[in-house]
Amino acid sequence: MLSSHPRDPARWPRLLTLLLCLALLAPSFSLTQFNPATLANPDSWRTMAGFVAGFFPMALQADFLRDVARETLTTLASATAGIALAMLLGAPLAFATSHALQRHVLGGERPARLAGWLASLLRGLMVILRGIPEIVWALLLVRAVGLGSLPAVLAIGLAYGGMLAKVYAEILESQTPGLASALYLQGASRWQCLLYGLWPQALPELLSYSVYRWECAIRASAVMGFVGAGGVGQLLDTSLKMLNGGEVSTLLLVFLLLVSLSEGISLLSRRALASVAATRMLPALGLLAVAASVLWLWPGWRDSGFDTSAIVRFARDFFPPASDMLTEIGHGIVETLAMSGLGSVLAFMAGAVLAMPAAGRFGTAAKWLSRLLLNVLRGVPDLLWASIAVLAVGLGPAAGVLALALHTTGVLGRLFAETLENADPEPELALQQAGAGRLLAFAYGQLPTVFSQWLAYTLYRWENNIRSATVLGIVGAGGLGQQLYLALSLFQQHRAASLIIAMLLLSWAVEQLSRYCRQRMG
Amino acid sequence: MSLRFDSVSLQLGGTDILRDISLSLAQGEQAALIGPSGAGKTSLLLLAATRYCPSHGSLNLLGDNPWHLSPRWLAGLRSRIGMIYQAAPLPARQRVVHAVAAGRLGQMSGWSALRQLLWPDDTAAILDSLQRVALADKLWQRCDQLSGGQRQRVGIARVLHQRPALMLADEPVAALDPRLADDTIRLLCEEASTHQSTLLVSLHSVELALAYFPRIIGVRDGQIMFDLPREQVHPGVVSALYAGERLREPAEPPAPAASRQDLRC
Questions:
Q1: In chain A, which residue's Cα lies nearest the Cα of B144?
Q2: Which residues, given as ranges, of chain B have pLDDT below 50?
Q3: Residue A55: how many CB atoms within 10 A of its CB?
Q4: pLDDT above 90: residue A165
């Protein structure tokens, strides 16, 4: 009996999966020119320490702080005006495309062919609007309408308009179906069905999602200055280019404060949505904020000399897209995928290590320190990390890997810590009580529970990172974005058009693939 | 002496859980703890398993006072004490082979334990432990694919794999059907006598206790009411122990939520 050593039946599939992952990961290092050995080299640590020391002391001159305050307000105003534009664009698109308000769904009539085509066309438009990242919209619009906050507002309006349209339509579809249909059968029009049947129950969810998007818009608007679209990002870009470390650290702090402020406001107002009074108050406050934002931004817009014919001329230059750059695009896509994959794997490892103290396993002091670190990593957007990483390790995809790894470590570390805190502690305690050391008790008692969750979170973030990796090149961190930035700088609009199409296809493919995977996993 | 409590009391969150417990078990002795729920049986076992430190009094386990030991020696002592819980503390997604192997973590080197997670190779001994609880065919299954009773038996297999000198069990058969409960208690007693381990088991079922254990300890309101050889446990003694309590059916499982809170508070 004791002589029989049964072998693990899953050992070959497991080994094969592991080898496959390694085989995919190994070329990523050379593709992205990311060399982990430099991290172990004391020389590069010394360089890094000097680099970090350059950020101190923080710049606190009065006129600089005045500039910062002004640009911070501009960032907030651009985000708010941008979201208002996105809602103006998204709401009618949602009304036109939502399945919940189609005549054949409401009344069981035969679907009208023309209306169906129109809805599909609009859905295609929505895919394009949200498939092009907002920073790319800003990059294009800066060239079309000039520097300043206007391209930022338009970029947020277009990209988020497509996103809001999709989500609004989905929210309408997820409501109890009978109500609108009952009204329709009494002879109400589709408008009336929306207002009387769907609106009252869907309103809190619609508002809550819009507020969440506003929070995202602030983060987006804060980095748009990197392409010349105003706000704190523009100041940061200038300070980085002048290598003025003190100003950079002040701006980073402002940045973090802005992000946590918007997170706080968004959380509070979404919680408040549970009460009826808040659902009335919030839109009123929102309108007030939008009016104030437009007033604040108006002088800049008036002076920018906005010209519609210039936009049309600019847009015409992009056609037809260049068709002779398939290998270049292929290379850009592979580089983008390699950056995102490597960045996500590094973030998984760093996140797992930081999650231990952040979940309170090594005492209170370590807990708060690691949480602070994770919040800083998470609060600074990847594009900003990329612009700093470019200074630290030079232009190219290695900076992109580093940027994605830093930002994603913050995100994953927080999520990992949460899973650790929510997991049942009994199995681990029982093992410690049977004399196992802390590491082994964790590996046998806790890891099996949290590991699959960690993996799921990482895959989800990887999907996000593929999208982020396409734009990091705008600040010089490799991938498709860098090619796009070059093409636009050289006024090669046809090539730029092809690259934008490649970005769209990549983001669409990733979306479809992840949807398919999620359906498969249930 | 394998286990000795000298007027031990335990307070948790300001409430007295156990008061003035004195008890000793010789090496290889087997005893059952009975008493109404909430009497403190679980806390008494957790004291013996070094989960709790006594508030007063002194405790001696396998020749040492655990709370006078350095962390290293405490871990060594703990690896010789095995505990079977009311609900087996197994991570849902872990495979049975690792769940059982975890019993010997205190005796393995860290490196080989981590290697075993990726490439389990000490499977013969694990399989042997599983065979004794009639679960050999589940070796490669995941714990969440097993029924509650099977999970409980995996928990028992883990402790058999550990081969402890002091075996503690907190209502190990509450989730099992009567026939399986009978077999399991017999198995525990046999294993304990084969390896000369001391065995202390808390049981809901007075019948099971009387059928298998030569020594019966009655606990109520955090105190030992009686500590008698089986022959002297008369029906009158038992009904006094449970007086004022609704008498339970032997196989009725305790409310798991309440008992978990017991563990926490």
A1: A449
A2: 247-265
A3: 17
A4: yes
Share of chain A above pLDDT 90, in %: 28
**B169 inside 8 A of chain A by CB:** no
Q: What are the chain B neighbours of A448 within 8 Å (beta carbons)?
A: 91-94, 98
Chain A nearest-CA residue for B140: A8
pLDDT 10s digits, A423-465: 888 999 999 888 888 889 999 999 988 998 898 889 888 988 9
Q: Averaging pLDDT over each range in A69-83, A243-257, A474-488, which range is the top one? A: A69-83
Residues A297 and A415 in one domain: no
Contacts with B81 from chain A: Cβ below 8 Å: 433-435
Give B 31-50 residues with CB within 8 A of chain A.
49-50
CA distances from A79 to A55, A82, A426 (A): 28, 5, 47
Short-list A296, A153, A288, CA closest to A229: A153
Question: How far away is chain B from the Cα of A335, in angstroms, using its nearest Cα?
Answer: 32
**Cβ within 8 Å, pair B105-A446:** no
pTM for this model (two decimals): 0.81
| Nearest CB neighbour to A435, from listed B78, B94, B120 | B78
**What's the CATH code of the domain at B260?**
3.40.50.300
Is the Cβ of A455 closer than 8 Å to some Cβ of chain B? Answer: no
pLDDT at A522: 54
Interface with B, mutate which of A1, A8, A15 (most B CBs under 10 A): A8
Residue B123 distance to chain A (closest CA, Å): 6
Domain, as residue range, for B36: 3-80+164-264
Domain count, chain B: 2
Q: Would you call A452 an interface residue with chain B, using a CB distance cutoff of 8 Å?
A: yes
d(CA B201, CA B219): 12
Q: Are residues A370 and A276 in the same domain?
A: no
What's the pLDDT band for A521 if we cut at 50, 70, 90? low
Check whether residue B14 and residue B52 sit in a common domain: yes
Q: Is residue B30 in a domain? A: yes
The two beta strands, B30-34 and B3-12, are unpaired
Q: In the prediction, which pLDDT does A339 show?
A: 92
Picking from B105, B122, B141 by the largest number of A CB atoms within 10 A of its own CB, the best residue to mutate is B105
DSSP string, A459-512: HHHHHHHHHHHHHHGGGT--SHHHHHHHHHHTT-HHHHHHHHHHHHHHHHHHHH
**Three-state helix/strand/coil letters over B14-73:** CEEEEEEEEEEECCCCEEEEECCCCCCHHHHHHHHCCCCCCCEEEEEECCECHHHCCHHH
Mean pLDDT of chain A: 86
- Domain-ending residue, one of A280, A308, A336: A308
d(CA B120, CA B136) in angstroms, rounded, equals 16
CA distance B4 to B22: 7
Residue length, chain A? 522
Work out the minimum CA distance from B262 to partner chain A, whole angstroms: 13
A134-150 per-position pLDDT tens digit = 899 999 888 888 888 88
Cis peptide, bond prior to residue B250, ω within 30 of zero: no
Size (chain B), residues? 265
Element (H, E) at B229: strand B223-229
Q: Are strands B3-12 and B56-61 parallel, antiparallel or unpaired?
A: antiparallel
Residue A363 and residue A302 in one domain = no
Q: Using a CB–CB cutoff of 8 Å, tell me whether A288 touches chain B.
A: no
> Which residues have C-beta within 8 Å of that of residue A482, sequence separation ≥ 6?
A332, A473, A474, A476
Q: Is the ipTM of this complex over 0.90?
A: no
On whether any CB of chain B is under 8 Å from the CB of A13, the answer is no
Q: How far is B212 from chain A (nearest CA, A)?
A: 26
The distance of A455 to chain B (nearest Cα, Å) reads 13
- Burial label for A215, CB within 10 Å (0-12, 13-18, 19+), is buried
Give Cα A192 distance to the centre of its chain.
36
Contact B223, B196 (CB under 8 A): no
